[in-house]
Design a protein that fits this description.
Layout lengths: L3 H16 L17 E3 L2 E10 L6 E9 L2 E9 L9 E4 L24 H8 L2 E4 L26 E8 L2 H5 L5 E5 L24 H4 L1 E6 L13
Antiparallel strand pairs: 1-2, 2-3, 2-9, 3-4, 4-7, 5-6, 5-8, 8-9
The structure holds copper (II) ion (CU).
Protein name: CHRD domain-containing protein
Organism: Streptomyces filamentosus (Streptomyces roseosporus)
Keywords: Signal
Length: about 230
């Protein structure tokens, strides 16, 4: 069984959320983020995406805020080729400092930090980094609107999203997570690691995190940075 069939169901379920997408209010951002780098296009933040679950994936993300317009650019390598990779900005804008989980988050010891096991560390989905349409938590598993890695496992993504003032003000508290792993190396998401706790129609492989990266200037535990 492949991920294809449930993809359609997820797409249908995600539709009402897309229709109710909130209209962005015209308020101008009051920029309280002093980290990041000021550019002519706004304030820019780097994210070093590091592998989780021995996925072998890595990458970089650049987040640029201009007022409440957030441009997200991601370049990642080593992802499961030809498969969609759900990706989100996780975390809270209300004070709790979430961060990327480490292997100790694997509570049941099956070798996989699932999305559910990672949630206490990285927090809930704040923004779904879809390719089109809704970007709320409701689209978290809309895998038909998530970017697909090419045949070499490379993924590139770019989208500008209108975000809330809370997100604009607390961007450094958030972090980027990409999902989708292939521990048995058969090239597809299968049920070898069981069902996803998030949607039992999806394999665990499709929703387990592959990379995570905190935003430069993050005040909590640092994942470090190579540059
Ligand atoms: Cu996520």
């Amino acid at each position: 069984m492949t991920v294809k069939r449930s993809t359609r169901l997820t797409a249908l379920m995600a539709l009402p959320a897309a229709l109710t997408l909130a209209v962005a209010a015209p308020a101008l951002a009051h920029d309280t983020n002093h980290a990041g780098q000021q550019t002519q296009h706004g304030r820019s933040y780097k994210v070093d995406l590091r592998q989780l679950n021995d996925s072998g994936a890595r990458g970089t993300a650049q987040l640029t805020l201009q007022g409440r317009q957030l441009t997200v650019k991601i370049n990642a390598q080593g992802l499961v080729p030809g498969q969609p990779h759900a990706q989100h900005i996780h975390g809270s804008t209300t004070g709790h400092d979430f961060t990327c989980p480490d292997a100790s988050a694997d509570k049941n010891g099956d070798g996989i930090v699932t999305t559910a096991e990672g949630l206490p560390a990285y927090g809930d989905i704040n923004i779904s980094l879809t390719t089109k349409g809704d970007t709320t938590k409701a689209s978290g598993l809309a895998v038909d609107r998530m970017p697909v890695a090419d045949k070499n496992g490379n993924l590139s993504y770019s989208r500008t999203i209108a975000v809330s003032q809370a997100v604009a003000d607390n961007i450094t508290r958030l972090h980027v997570v990409q999902h989708g792993i292939d521990p048995n190396g058969n090239g597809v998401y299968d049920f070898g690691k069981g069902k996803s706790e998030l949607d039992p129609k999806l394999p665990q492989e499709a929703t387990a995190p592959a990379t995570c990266g905190t935003i430069e200037g993050h005040s909590g535990a640092s994942m470090g940075n190579n540059y």
